[in-house]
Amino acid sequence: MPLTLASLVQHSALKLTVLAGKDRLDCEVRWVHTSELDDPGPYLEGGELLLTTGLKLEVGDPEAMRGYVRRLTAAKVVGLGFGVGVGHDSVPDALVAAAERAGLPLLEVPRRTPFIAISKTVSAALAAERYKAVTAGFDAQRELTRAALAPDGTAALLARLAAHLDGWAALYDASGTVVAAAPEWAGRRAARLAGEIDRLRDIQGHAGAAVAGPAGSEDRVEIQSLGTGRRPRGFLAVGTEERLDTSARYVVHAAVALLTLSLEQSRTLQDAHTRLAAALLRMLLAGEAGHARSVAGALYRGLLDHPVRVLIAEPSDAQRGPEALALLAERVEAAAARSGDPLLAIHEDGRLIVLAAQDATALAAAADLAEAEDALAAGLSAAVAPEEVPEAHRQAERALAVAVRRGRNLVEHGEVGAGSVLPLLADDAVRAFAEGLLRPLREHDATSRGDLVASLHAWLSHHGQWDAAAADLGVHRHTLRYRMRRVEEILGRSLDDPDVRMELWLALKTEAETGSA
């Protein structure tokens, strides 16, 4: 336990007598220092027991003594030892009164007790405390190492860590999701620190933070990032009621080292899985489902026995998009690891392509995350057999194109065929095409009689029925026939061609939809 003033007072060889501040003897002594200065504060760090003989103090002036004690308390001195028998036969009354008033422990040091004896006692006690902390830290490190080697190493390690700290411990993955906690109830508390994890994630290299626990708790929480690269592999959080002492810090550092080693080893294995998954996905995209099955092994074979879906995501925001896509890839990977769902993914060339079973939790999580991220656009295919993955890829591509055109975060294949086709085509290129196609007719109408554009619209909307279209326009059908011949002459196209009629109708509708008529 830490060295306190009470420990020194109880030391029989020192013969110290308490004259003031008896109720504050439990203060921890971090060092001992001797000074005869009137203001030793600039030479102190706080936590010291100060020793003096009072040779340069105005001990007969109560106000001077009060000022002296104020300066000591401001310097966070934990106690004052006054040596008698050198400059003063007893501790001055003015100093005793000032110390009692300020609550500063004041100890009388007899002539037969040299200051060096107190210094040696404090130094020996501090060295013993440090040795005890180091020894306890090594013992705890061995316990944590044995726990880490157990079948469920991470859970066992967290349990031992929480028990040693008399608190709780939680492990987060790279996305900030709690993946393990001890005791079990700590998972809910740890999840409420997601904002703190997000702040640490943006710091390159190792990062740590000490924060207050979630509202409703009195925890002191310390968070450490895990991993050796620029981006953290995960995070460890520990919560305790008291500040961590030296021994506890040794234990936490040991846990960080063991978890980092475990994550790096897992990452090496995960990288191999990632490369295999990417190779299998490329085979499926190339229509080689048979070859994919032959190399899938037990790890992915089950995935290729059921309908699958394809999701394609890409940045829609040049600044935030790439980072959002990388975070999506991490969270998809983490969701697959938690759920145990087999998942194939390729993250390259500014795109993320994901293939998973149609009802996979990880795929649903990927879709939800993509839909919630404003910096991304994503398309999701229908469910298909593994042999039809190339078609699913085309479906996801088309859905992605619709998402980009409509300014949506996520579009599923089933939505592509729903509603009007016009919103899919009303981009700048289509508007330019419509304007160019109809410009000769509009120029004619602006300078001549005939109203060809309105006549063309009426004729097309009535499917080429002369009487109905003429009645709608309020003209004779022969007049309408003449106008349609003029349309053909001006455009140099035949209205008997269904493709021409389709293009003209879409041009008219596009201008009407965009208000460019």
Please name the defining characteristics of this protein.
517 residues; alpha/beta; 5-stranded mixed beta sheet; 5-stranded antiparallel beta sheet; 19 helices; 15 strands; 52% helix; elongated; CdaR-like_regulators; Purine catabolism regulatory protein; PucR_C-HTH_sf; PucR_C-HTH_dom
Strand content: 15-25%
Please estimate the helix content: 40-55%
Indicate the structural class: alpha/beta
How many runs of DSSP E, i.e. beta strands?
15
The termini sit apart by 87 Å
Helix tally equals 19
Q: Mind describing the biggest β-sheet? A: 5 strands, mixed
Instruction: Average the pLDDT over all residues and give the rounded result.
Output: 85
Low-confidence stretches: none
What would you call the shape?
elongated
Strand order of the largest sheet: 1-5-4-3-2
- Radius of gyration from CA coordinates: 40 Å
Protein name: Purine catabolism regulatory protein
Domain PucR C-terminal helix-turn-helix: 452-509
Organism: Actinacidiphila bryophytorum
InterPro entries: CdaR-like_regulators, PucR_C-HTH_dom, PucR_C-HTH_sf, PucR_dom
Q: Summary?
A:
The chain is an alpha/beta fold.
Describe this structure in words.
This protein is 52% helix and 16% strand. The chain has 19 helices and 15 strands. The protein has helices at residues 5-9, 62-74, 93-102, 115-148, 153-165, 186-191, 194-201, 246-285, 289-300, 321-339, 361-372, 389-406, 413-416, 422-425, 428-447, 452-461, 466-473, 477-491, 498-514, and strands at residues 17-20, 31-34, 48-52, 79-83, 106-109, 168-173, 178-182, 208-212, 220-226, 234-240, 308-315, 343-348, 351-357, 376-380, 410-412. The strands form three sheets. Strands 1-5-4-3-2 form a five-stranded mixed sheet. A five-stranded antiparallel sheet has the order 7-6-10-9-8. A hairpin with a 7-residue loop joins β8 and β9. The mean pLDDT is 85.
